[in-house]
Amino acid sequence: MRKTFVLQFYRNQEALLMANPYKGASGSFWELYAQGRPRLPESILRRIWEYHASSGGSFEVVHEPGAGIGLHTERLAEKFRHVIVSDTERSSLDIATTRLRGLTNAEYRLAKLENAARVPRAGIDMVVAIDMTHFTDTGKMLEAVHRQLKPGGTFAVILVGPSKLDEPAAQNIWKPIWWSNLEAVTQSSVGGKARDHPWLERFVNGLDAVPLPEHMFEPVAVRIHINTAGDWHDEVLPPGLQFDKAPSHSNQSDHVLHIEEEEDLRLTMDISGLREQLAAMSPAGLSTKIERSLEELDRSLNGRKVSGHFLVQCLLATKRR
Q: Which InterPro entries does the record match to this protein (predicted)?
């Protein structure tokens, strides 16, 4: 009995470690995801392309791991000769192949980034990881990226956080709603308390917590913080909630950019648009608690549209030559 209990405990811990709340999501959810998620602004892509070109990178082959339904794939296909689109979910890849059937330079692979053995070793010019690295084992993820990239290739990571509303009264209601929805999504994946899920802790700590081992990457990285007037950790968390803050791996040689009021990441929407944002996070649908909170926000807005912006981080690194 003791052996069975211990074995089950470690299986549960492993499930929590690698839990992805979008595993097994339905096609109808991915439609909501496409409606509610922000598109990558040209300003971010332009910075990524310029960084890659400045280090002598080629625009031949790009790998987009965790691509889901291929929301951003067309943008990559416009720049690169060939795009490898991978994801762990067959349902989302099936939708991606349908959505992108007009693309002639994309191929699709069912694989985790950490063990995508079929991706050519040292054959990728750029790995673009969008909203997915926090769902991976960081060490294994970095090893896989290093193995895939050509010497001098670029690792580009983008993390899109919550939207932040300009009106303080509306933001004071919206921020706890957004977080409560994220907690509900987390708990519906494999259960347990939200703060027990390491992926959520990695999300809260942001990309500064991602190390770049010197034997893998060049010593100078670019770390971009967009619309995060304060610290990412503090901007994401609502008042009263604590998560251990991971040490920052940003060092003095990194180029750190803080950009405020990025026009491409502005939003103006009514309560329906805000509900779409939440629905794009929630494979199981919005809870009764969230719906009641949205009603409170709707009363506060009184039918008005509200403006705001998305919080975004971007990390750019070059594989050692």
A: Diverse_substrate_MTase, Methyltransf_25, SAM-dependent_MTases_sf
